[in-house]
């Protein structure tokens, strides 16, 4: 976090938003500034969010790394929340899809494959861990950006990879 705040990329209901949480109680969502505060403490997960003077009852629960389940005034909402670094790694590792929906997961930087978390033929959902690559003494969990069926796994644990190298290829998931 710097003096301006912390930057996040938040995906909700198919829409992606740029969110900056300032140290001064300001929140900037897609360039629009808002006044925000969160109250409540202790073991209870229920909090009150005051956003631009309007109170919201909020209950937040983390489901897995980066994936949250929120209840806002009785409505349930799922969201993926990535810090700026994780969002950058995601954008660098996402392959371009073809017209048939085939995509590839690519290495965002040179590194060493630590783990392959999927098997050929497996169906993955958005956000599922696919490959873990160690780079600069940090493990980077590369995740699926969309639902797909694992087509080919082109790397194995212990293998060195280069930036942009294809790690896993995906195919479409047959929808019923």
Would you give an account of this structure?
By secondary structure, the protein is mostly beta strands. Helix content is 6%, strand content 55%. The chain is built from one helix and 16 strands. It has an eight-stranded antiparallel beta barrel with strand order 1-2-3-4-5-6-7-8. Strands 9-16-14-11 form a four-stranded antiparallel sheet, with no helix packed on it. The chain is elongated, with a radius of gyration of 19 Å. The termini are far apart.
The first-to-last residue Cα distance is 45 Å
Please report the number of helical segments. 1
Characterize the largest beta sheet: strand count, sense, and whether it forms a barrel.
Answer: 8 strands, antiparallel, barrel
Helix-strand pattern: EEEEEEEEHEEEEEEEE
Average pLDDT metric: 82
How does the helix and strand content classify structurally? mainly beta
Shape: elongated
Q: Bin the helical content.
A: under 10%
- Strand line-up in the sheet with most strands: 1-2-3-4-5-6-7-8
Radius of gyration: 19 Å
The number of distinct β-strands equals 16
Taken as a percent bin, the fraction of beta residues is: over 45%
List low-pLDDT spans.
95-101
How is this structure best summarized?
Helices cover 6% and strands 55% of the residues.
